[in-house]
Amino acid sequence: MELGLSWVVFVGIFGVFVALKWMLCSVNQWFYEIKLGDKRLSLPPGDLGWPLIGNMWSFLRAFKSSNPDSFISTFVTRFGHTGMYKTFMFGSPSIIITVPEACRRVLTDDEAFKPGWPTSTLKLIGRKSFIGISYDEHKRLRRLTAAPVNGHEALSMYLRYIEDNVVSALDKWAGMGEIEFLTELRKLTFRIIMYIFLSSESEQAMEALEREYTALNYGVRAMAINIPGFAYHKALKARKKLVATFQSIVDERRERRRKNPTTPKKDMMDALLDVEDENGRRLNDEEIIDVLVMYLNAGHESSGHITMWATLFLEKHPEFFQRAKAEQEAIVKNRPPTQKGLALKEVRDMEYLSKVIDETLRLVTFSFVVFREAKADVNISGYTIPKGWKVLVWFRSVHLDPEIYPEPKEFNPLRWDGLTPKAGTYLPFGAGSRTCPGNDLAKLEIAVFLHYFLLNYKLERLNPACPLMYLPHSRPKDNCLGRIRRVSSS
Predict the structure, then answer these.
(1) CATH number of the CATH domain containing 459
(2) Where along the chain is heme bound (predicted)?
């Protein structure tokens, strides 16, 4: 009798638990879908997860594991390979896009989509940065910054500075013993972007700023919990310190130019202070600072990480390393005897090394997702994206799709022989009007570093089997601890 009663109680408790779980898992669906009326019938498959947190726990769990792709794989397993899934991410009902044509459409259709970055991200990067401003404001700022950062004349001018710093850094690292290779690369790329924007080479200032950027980036993909001890709280504090630093730099530069209006313009800060729109309006301090916060972050994080991964991939595949090295040796051999250092044309002619970089960008997918928001109801592939819903363009799924790239997780520069990627299948810098404005500068930095590394150095990792972490960006947990060995004195 007692056993039977216990069983009834157990079944009752279990039933209440199942019912409660069903109700909680349905809250977001009731709240966000019911108002759509019949349009909800044409939403992509998926689920909106738990109240408030949505699918964030499963996202963070996957990206803190050894298999970040398990997050999307779960959707594919449950709902099929539809390429579009409804979800609830970063505080908003969202549609995840994982197939090329839909990605291309979302990224290039400015009439239907606008930036949709989470409010928590905008608080960190800045509401007046490129990721938060309107199409017209973005077009104006991009016109201002594109040529001074990515133009042929600018790249030719920066080449010598990049080259000198790469040569000096490699020589220094070779004498340091154990180093965190990634950490040193990030310092190097940060020095370069600081010079371009602020003409600064202060080691102390750069190290302080770079530390704050590290904290900032850890908060970008974290849960937006502004409580001491959480990554997002630390990131907000870092943002505050960065803004204070840049505000003092802006104030000092304005004062210097007021006292001496004829001072020559020498960096991007001067350009930002001078730019006017068609009505004569200049950028205010908030706009300048947010552009600085964004550019200095994007301008060193991606370059440093991709350079590390390209180096690791080449070291892991000796046949690719030797072919890339032979190309660099041929460039030096064919150089006029009066020429000192690299010429931009030589960098442009690095055909094989370009494939190495492209393959690294594909395989690593530094920015695995970007955010858009539907301006109106949009139909893609028979599914409705409701007005106001976020769209997560999942680059990682595209770049690792075996139907597009056979054996996608294998590093193979030869796959690029004669390959012209179809629209939407290769998106390391995004696409459309908001393509990364510093893509050519980043590829130049990577190419120059690999040129000198391949000719004269080797990397010996101390922990080659070190596990990886994927947030905020993929990297070995030990930041690639190792030694740089000089192998040639040429």
Answers:
(1) 1.10.630.10
(2) 436
The domain in which residue 65 lies consists of: 26-486
Separation between Cα atoms, residue 274 and residue 277, nearest integer Å: 10
350 touches 369 (CB < 8 A): no
Spatial CB neighbours of 213, under 8 Å, sequence gap ≥ 6: 190, 238, 242, 296, 297, 300, 301
Q: Does the annotation list 480 as a binding residue?
A: no
pLDDT surpasses 60 at 141: yes
pLDDT of residue 10: 64
Using the structure block, give the residue that is written with the tokens 């726990």. 57
Picking from 366, 395, 375, 219, the residue whose alpha carbon sits closest to that of residue 299 is 366
| pLDDT per residue as tens digits for the range 261-278 | 887 877 888 888 887 777
Give the ranges where 334-476 is alpha helix by DSSP (H).
344-348, 351-364, 395-399, 439-456
Residue type, 167: V
How far is it, in rounded angstroms, from Cα 88 to Cα 390? 9
**Reduced to 3 states, what is the DSSP secondary structure of residue 462?**
coil
**What is the maximum alpha-carbon separation in the chain?**
100
Task: Give the count of domains, the chain.
Answer: 1
Are residues 470 and 64 in contact, defined by beta-carbon separation less than 8 angstroms?
yes
Residue with tokens 């016109």: 143
Residue 155 and residue 176: Cα distance in Å, rounded? 30
Count of residues in the chain: 490
Specify the pLDDT at position 312: 98
Residue 338 lies in a domain: yes
Please say whether the beta carbons of 481 and 180 come within 8 A: yes
Q: Which residues contact 387 (CB under 8 A, 6 or more apart)?
A: 374, 375, 376, 377
In sequence order, what are the beta bridge partners of 485?
458
Q: How many whole angstroms separate alpha carbon 92 and alpha carbon 139? A: 27
The reply to whether 203 falls in a domain is yes
How confident is the model at residue 221, as a pLDDT?
Answer: 81
Has residue 78 been placed in a domain? Answer: yes
Contact 165, 188 (CB under 8 A): yes
DSSP, collapsed to helix, strand or coil, labels residue 317 as: coil
Q: What's the pLDDT score for residue 18?
A: 56
Question: Residues 6 or more apart from 445 whose CB is under 8 A from it?
Answer: 162, 189, 192, 303, 307
Where residue 5 falls among pLDDT bands split at 50, 70, 90? low
The answer to whether position 5 is within a domain reads no
Q: Is the pLDDT confidence value at 199 over 90? A: no
